[in-house]
Amino acid sequence: MRRPLLAGNWKMHYGVSEGVALVEALSADLTDLTDRDVLVCPPFTLLGSLAPLLDGTAVALGAQNMHYETKGAFTGEIAPNMLKELGCSYVILGHSERRQYFGETDELINRKAHAALANGLKPIVCVGEVKAERDSGQAESVVVGQLRGSLAGLSAEQLRSVVIAYEPVWAIGTGDTATPADAQAIHARIRAELAALSDQATADAIIIQYGGSVKPDNVDELMAQPDIDGALVGGASLKAADFIRIVRFK
Ligand code: PEP
Q1: Pocket-forming residues, ligand 1, beta carbon under 6 Å
Q2: What pLDDT does residue 1 have?
């Protein structure tokens, strides 16, 4: 029922020539996918060069962040309509690195989510607890709070265009992955909360990705969980062979 979404978050890596080589390798290989969606989210500076290369391929284009206004005096910021014009269909919002290093709050992420949807972009809304919160048994309550804040005021119809990425912060870039069972438990809780925010049919239609040190050797067991509908992949999305293997999870 849900089409898995495998997404690569390149973070602040790669210039044009490396980015072109990576998307050419991905699009040349991933020509036979019928049951899953693939997305790459390069730095802003590559979007204009990569969009024409991805046009007509199985690989969609997304951005890693955006502002919530469509224009104005916001030096250094990028508007949602600018991303749309360049060919983006998704935008990552509220990644833990943005929450941690740039002070992004649920309220700000909520404004961005509304703006993304108003401009025809599908937001990938990231949630996840830090290590101390997990160790003190607060993982679920932290994630539920982030969901309620980030998704406030969205209709059921809008929620169907939202992707949730559960990314335990302690698992990002560390090589430590949540066990499939622990990840599944949080994903099920997220889906229950999405049902409370809308209705069960809507919650059942929403893609919930797992992120945090997803690699070729752990993707299969994560994707086997009933409420894990895809992956948001950082480090392993920078190498064509690794990301292709992740996309081709069994
Ligand atoms: C991420 O940045 O969203 C991420 C999950 O990174 P990594 O796969 O490197 O842990």
Answers
A1: 9, 167, 172-173, 211-214, 232-236
A2: 76
